């Protein structure tokens, strides 16, 4: 697949309205891509509230008077991903530094669009695996070559109303895991009081987490999808059953509003929704995504990661590359502002900061066992899976489509798109 063809590929890493509001759902907050001699042009998809946090970080860095100051260019996510192959192909106005979602790195690498970090990391010995969350760090290395450095690892979990959990199943969170059996028990008890047990939210992270728990893999060979199987059918059927049993919110209801108004017990959502949830007038907590078992070693929490990459650019000097590395090293030890956006920075430096460890989302980072639950679905064609799930998964949940039709359609659509992409090679 050439770079021009890549411009037409939609690989949506954050397809929900909630996620888009956090990292790419609005309009551009600043423009321009031309780079001056002593300036690092930095493209990122942070135009929601988290964009303010990123701007604050960059302002703080620039006040340290570095040799190369950072110019923040926040773009709507879909616009940014459309622009990237266009500018790289043209060789003009290529950003010096870019944030992309981890799921895109394999495709950018295969299309020969990325510079590597291998030659420059030797001068920055603290930018290493030991200092980052493993899942976020490992995604940046392909075939022994490093193509990215992680900013964060943002994941999916369950916000819960503490009072309602205590009322309907007080032992549910003794182990910081809520199982699907416990979800069902809570929902059946709360339904009698007109309280929804659990919200039906973004299908992709909910289903992929459960699919992996069932032993499913998106691909076995890195290319061919493996989606029409028992693991996917079980995952989809489970959510359809919960809906049928009235454990969950109903078609057309707004889970966010029900949770914030105290009318729902469990709210599966991303950690980036913390700024919204903290407005609730009741005590709430955040825990792992619903699991099939209470064994933490088998838990799966869907995750993604914003990663720093450098697209190939013949005009990027060695001095500017060094300036970029100075910025990344500063970010490694100055990421508290990013945590305030509801994110989990990938740097482990923050584990010594009580202000961070008091934040609810740090539950996913505060131990190696919890870190191991974070799973980035880095299938090269993950975006095609996401497109189908976003378009059809709720139809199965709400009884408008059969499970067999769903999984067969998922397999066919993804396989057809993958074949089309590879036909031009």
UniProtKB/TrEMBL annotation:
Q: Which Gene3D superfamilies match?
A: Periplasmic binding protein-like II
State if Acetylation is listed as a keyword.
no
Which Pfam families does UniProt cross-reference here? Answer: SBP_bac_1 (PF01547)
Which InterPro entries did the record assign?
A: Bact_solute-bd_prot1, SBP
Q: Where is the signal peptide?
A: 1-21
Which controlled-vocabulary keywords does the entry list? Signal, Sugar transport, Transport
Stored PANTHER family: ARABINOSE-BINDING PROTEIN-RELATED, BLR3389 PROTEIN
Kindly provide the name given to this protein in its UniProt entry: Multiple sugar transport system substrate-binding protein
């Amino acid at each position: 697949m050439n770079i021009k063809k890549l411009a037409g590929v939609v690989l949506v890493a954050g397809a929900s309205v909630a996620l888009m509001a956090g990292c790419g759902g609005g309009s551009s907050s600043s423009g321009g891509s031309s780079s001056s001699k002593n300036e690092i042009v930095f493209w990122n998809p942070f135009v929601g509230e988290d964009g303010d946090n990123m701007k604050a970080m960059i302002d703080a860095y620039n006040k340290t008077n570095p040799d190369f100051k950072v110019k923040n260019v926040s773009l709507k996510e879909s616009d940014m991903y459309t622009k990237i192959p266009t500018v790289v192909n043209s060789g003009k106005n290529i950003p010096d530094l870019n944030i992309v979602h981890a799921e895109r790195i394999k495709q950018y690498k295969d299309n020969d669009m990325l510079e590597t970090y291998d030659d420059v990391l030797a001068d920055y010995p603290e930018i290493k695996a030991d200092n980052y969350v493993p899942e976020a760090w490992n995604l940046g290395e392909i075939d022994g070559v490093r193509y990215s450095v992680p900013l964060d690892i943002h994941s999916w979990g369950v916000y819960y109303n503490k009072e309602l959990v205590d009322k309907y199943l007080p032992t549910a969170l003794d182990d910081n895991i809520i199982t699907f059996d416990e979800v069902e028990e809570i929902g059946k008890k709360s339904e009698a009081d007109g309280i929804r047990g659990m919200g039906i939210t973004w299908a992709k992270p909910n289903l992929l987490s459960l699919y992996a728990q069932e032993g499913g893999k998106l691909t076995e060979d890195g290319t061919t999808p493996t989606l029409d199987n028992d693991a996917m059918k079980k995952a989809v059927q489970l959510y359809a059953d919960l809906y049928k049993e009235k454990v969950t919110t109903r078609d057309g209801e707004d889970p966010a509003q029900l949770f914030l108004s105290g009318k729902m017990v469990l709210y599966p959502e991303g950690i980036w929704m913390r700024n919204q949830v903290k407005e609730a007038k009741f005590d709430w907590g955040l825990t792992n995504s619903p699991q099939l078992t209470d064994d933490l070693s088998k838990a799966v929490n869907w995750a993604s990661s914003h990663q720093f990459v450098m697209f190939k650019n013949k005009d990027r000097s060695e001095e500017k590359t060094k300036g970029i590395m100075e910025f990344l090293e500063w970010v490694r030890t100055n990421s508290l502002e990013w945590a305030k956006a509801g994110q989990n920075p990938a740097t482990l430096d923050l584990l010594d900061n009580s202000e961070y460890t008091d934040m609810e989302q740090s539950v996913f980072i505060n131990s190696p066992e919890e870190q191991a639950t974070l799973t980035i679905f880095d299938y090269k064609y993950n975006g095609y899976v996401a497109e189908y799930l976003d378009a059809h998964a709720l139809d199965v949940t709400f009884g408008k489509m059969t499970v067999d039709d769903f999984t067969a359609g998922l397999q066919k659509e993804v396989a057809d798109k993958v074949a089309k992409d590879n036909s031009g090679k």
